Amino acid sequence: MVVVPDSVPSKVFARPLAEGASVPAIDCPLRTTPNAGSRIRFARREVFRSDFAAEWIGIAIVALFALFWAHGIRFGLAVKWDDFLLPVLAVLAIVSARLLRSERGSLAAEYFLLTIMATAAFGVISYLSMTTDRPLADTALMAADRAIGFDWHANYGWLVHHPAIAKILQVAYNSLVYQGLYFGVLFGLMARRRELREMFWLVAAAGVMTSAGAALFPAFGPYKAFGINTEFLSAMKQLRGPNLHFALASLTGVVSFPSFHTTMALLYMVGFRRTGAIGWAAVALNVVMLPAIPFFGGHYLVDMFAGALVALASLTIVKAWPVIAGRIRSGDRPPVSSWEPVPNQVPVFRQHGLDRELPV
User: Fold this and answer.
1) Helix/strand/coil (H, E, C) string of 233-300?
2) How confident is the model at residue 338 (pLDDT cuts 50, 70, 90)?
3) Which terminal Cβ of the chain has fewer Cβ within 10 Å, N or C?
4) Judging by beta carbons within 10 Å of its beta carbon (0-12, 13-18, 19+), is residue 62 exposed, middle or buried?
5) What residues contact residue 93 under an 8 Å CB cut-off, 6+ apart?
6) CB atoms < 10 A from the CB of 42, how many?
7) DSSP assignment letter at 359
8) CA–CA–CA angle 266, 271, 274 (5° rounding)
9) What is the tens place of the pLDDT at every residue in 95-153?
């Protein structure tokens, strides 16, 4: 916010203003009792700045890639006016928080908007990944399950006969979306921007890898093998056919291999660390979620193994990238300070362009 008073105390300036010069605006917090006649306005650069510029660029790249891919295969996506409701509300929340000078509220609101847009972009990418002409990998995946002694159908039958346990597992499985929303609100209100940015790139890396896995090894999952029909199975079958028209609001999970649910369960265990009791609760919730994934997500057990590898790869990439980028910027050399001592010579202060080395 910028306050432009009608008069400025003379001691503000080190020297008198030239004749005809205008009084500059003074950037300062809003005073509780401004002088009469003062004009108060909000600085636009504060309202429209972004805390996640690099992340928005990443989403734009994914969206452009999806657009060209969809155009090439005549993939259609119906978008309705009410699909914009949540993004518009998020934008209003961002603007309101910044007008009220709430840095934490602004951070949480923008990350919420970022999550919405990233979910839509990667949701489309996951659908596109299932349209490749690669043969289905269900036979090989089921054979791998049996090779390690996992009988999906027998375990599913046991769960059907224990509805109380099934209900607990289902609640844990469905908590993934709410964990994502809670993560953004919690760390936003805690003003922990670094953790928010880290989680975004972890999810982005996982989204790229799981979509690539679906493109290379498309599979319908055990639901199809054992004749259990679900909404997402219908979408998966449609993606392998000629009719590639879908509605944005009805997009669902269609990636079987690797298991994205497994990836995110492990990443949230890591992400909620250092939050005390909340972190331990998140670990407990995701531990309960893991055995639910094959039966409520329609996954083979090997899908989960692949999802765990995706989580490990995402963590490795995101953790290592700052180090790699730093070495690239510095030419793989340690940073050199402005003062560089030279034996038996006066140090050269390069900041002011003194390139000569003066003998002692």
Assistant:
1) HHHHHHHCCCCCEEEHHHCCCCCCCCCHHHHHHHHHHHHCCCCCHHHHHHHHHHHHHHHHHHHHCCCC
2) very low
3) C
4) buried
5) 105, 109, 112
6) 14
7) B
8) 125
9) 999 999 899 999 999 999 999 999 999 999 999 999 999 999 999 999 999 999 999 99
